[in-house]
Amino acid sequence: MTLEFVYWVVLAAGVAFLAVALLFDAQLARLPFKFPGAEVIAGPVSFVAAAVFGAAGLVGLLVYELGAASIFVAIGGALVVGGINAILFTLVKHRETIDMFDREKLVAMRGITTLGLGPNHVGRVSVQYAGMTRSLSATSDEEIKAGEEIVVLDVLDNLLFVARLRKAFTRHEVDA
């Protein structure tokens, strides 16, 4: 197995895992690394660092013809870009903490499903709140397809309980 092959495999794996984690909101994107004073989202940071390791290694090996010394370029690139990525994710997480809002205030608000949901199936909904569109996890007693209008009935452990807008217009259901 050549060094070039290793770089290509690590690059491909990093890009593939990053795509899966970000496009499909995979749980592995939410694994936290704990550092003193900060919590960093491990998935995207690790996957970006792996992809940069592979890419920087290939540049060092093929462009600059460094041979085995390309490993230092790969490690350096991964550490620098991974570190910057970790700092950015930490800042974003800090900003989200500052912007925390009481999900209970979403009860009786309208929204749209962005990922289908139903009984025993968590999906995603978009709800306008405080001038921002929030994308939140939700469930329902009925199957609701993506793109359908919903109303928020309740909030249970940060999970919205919703119903189709046409069904949820009686005061009794909204108060339930």
In short:
The chain is α+β, with helices and mostly antiparallel strands. The protein has helices at residues 3-23, 42-63, 70-98, 171-175; strands at residues 32-35, 38-41, 110-115, 123-129, 132-139, 149-156, 159-164. It folds into two domains: 3-98; 103-175, Nucleic acid-binding proteins (OB fold (Dihydrolipoamide Acetyltransferase, E2P)).
Supply the key terms.
two-stranded antiparallel ribbon; single chain; alpha+beta; five-stranded mixed barrel; 2 domains; OB fold (Dihydrolipoamide Acetyltransferase, E2P); 176 residues
Architecture overview:
The chain has helices at 3-23, 42-63, 70-98, 171-175, and strands spanning 32-35, 38-41, 110-115, 123-129, 132-139, 149-156, 159-164. By secondary structure, the chain is of the alpha+beta class. The protein has a five-stranded mixed β-barrel with strand order 3-4-5-7-6. Helix 1 runs antiparallel to helix 2. The longest helix is centred in the middle third of the chain and has 29 residues, at 70-98.
List the helices and strands and how they pair.
Layout: H1 3-23, E1 32-35, E2 38-41, H2 42-63, H3 70-98, E3 110-115, E4 123-129, E5 132-139, E6 149-156, E7 159-164, H4 171-175
Parallel strand pairs: 5-7
Antiparallel strand pairs: 1-2, 3-4, 3-6, 4-5, 6-7
